[in-house]
Amino acid sequence: MASETGIRYETATDADNASSTNDTSTRIVGYAARHAISALRPIAIERRAPGAHDVAIEILYCGVCHSDVHQVRNEWHNTVYPCMPGHEIVGRVTAVGDRVRRHAVGDLVGVGCMVDSCQHCESCADGEEQYCEHGFTATYNGNSQNPTAANNTFGGYSESIVVREDFVLRIPSNLDPAAAAPILCAGVTTFSPLRHWKVGKGTRVGVVGLGGLGQMAVKLATAMGATVSLITRSPDKADDARRIGATDVIVSTDKADMEAHAGAFDFILSTIPQPHDPNPYMALLARDGIYTVVGCIAPLTTPLDLSRILMQRKSLGTSLIGSIAETQAVLDFCSLHDIVSDFRLIAIDDVNDAFDRVDKGEVDYRFVIDMASLRGQTPDESLAAKVGL
Ligand SMILES: [Zn+2]
Ligand SMILES: [Zn+2]
């Protein structure tokens, strides 16, 4: 049901949640794109009233992830418009449903890439909601099973959000809340494969790319005890990489440099966000080494040359974000090791420029939106009207 001016947000409603603490949805403002080539503009949406198991959160900060750019520009060909991105959300709890036990009003909490999943398939039962066999509900552009404007989810480029408590994370008190926001996607996306493939003391790790994901990967793998090298096209990122823990920097466009490091790594984490040729990176792996792709959801440009990788039992791995348990684990790991993301705080009005810079790969830190800059903004009512909602 659409209100006169806002768009009804409806997801994660289940039988339990039917007993709402109140029935009144809240009209709020957020930044959304109307189509693949439009800028993000303020629009009005409605958040559902918190149900019995829901947590209502006032959003303080939201990271700008490369996925936000891909999704808003329909590069994955599944975007439902209007598209309001944002899945690195840190905020303050303002209300809880009467059956919520883990979170209380006033708590500092986070929401990452998922806001729900089926909860009964084998993956969900194993605590791997990101691989839910029915498709998890993404924090924005969500509800993959029935993607229509009526049940689309809207993300964190907004004043507030209502999320089922199982998908709400605790933000440790010693972390700067703005700098912790990127942990909710960039952090867990790199932490999950590092943990899955048991990276630890003595593992020789290569991280490809030093964007939002890459800098978290360098910091996390270093804290796990690995010896970490950055593999990059940009020699000017060497100082930054060494500052955050890398002991070596390999320039991927320098053939001699790549050849000199043949067989040097046990594990390479690739954060390259575009289709690419994996073979030059496979050559850097030692016997039993794994090249794991986390940044690219598209066919690779060049087939794997199996004649070269099977001679040393090398593998190509993939990994998708991380589970809710892993998201809490990476937050707690970061708290213990004093790790946060390098970031630049921006006002929401600057988000369209930020998208262009992220798309060009110009930044070696995360943009984080200070959501205080959204307060008092007037929604573009004509935009909501134009999309027919
Ligand atoms: Zn992300
Ligand atoms: Zn499931």
Overview of the molecule:
There is one protein chain. With 389 residues, the chain is α/β, with parallel strands linked by helices. It has two domains: 222 residues, Medium-chain alcohol dehydrogenases, catalytic domain (Quinone Oxidoreductase, Chain A, domain 1, Alpha-Beta Complex); 133 residues, NAD(P)-binding Rossmann-like Domain (Rossmann fold, 3-Layer(aba) Sandwich), CATH 3.40.50. It is built from twelve helices and 18 strands. The strands form four sheets. Strands 4, 5, 6, 9, 10, 17 and 18 form a seven-stranded mixed sheet that branches. It has a six-stranded parallel sheet with strand order 13-12-11-14-15-16. The chain has a three-stranded mixed sheet with strand order 1-3-2. β14, α8 and β15 form a beta-alpha-beta unit. α4 crosses α5 and α4 crosses α10. The radius of gyration is 21 Å and the shape is globular. It starts with 6 loop residues before the first strand and ends with a helix.
How many domains? The number is 2
CATH hierarchy: architecture of the largest domain: Alpha-Beta Complex
CATH class categorisation of the largest domain: Alpha Beta
Low-confidence stretches: 1-21, 385-389
Q: List each distinct ligand once.
A: zinc ion
Q: Give the DSSP E fraction (strand runs of 2 or more residues).
A: 15-25%
The CATH homologous superfamily of the largest domain is called Medium-chain alcohol dehydrogenases, catalytic domain
Structural class, from helix and strand content? alpha/beta
* Average pLDDT figure: 91
CATH topology of the largest domain: Quinone Oxidoreductase, Chain A, domain 1
Radius of gyration: 21 Å
Largest sheet: 7 strands, mixed
Number of helices: 12
Percent helix? 10-25%
Amino- and carboxy-terminal Cα gap: 9 Å
- The total strand number stands at 18
Helix/strand order, N-terminal first: EEEEHEEEHEEEHHEHEHEHEHEHEHEHEH
Sum up the overall morphology in one term: globular
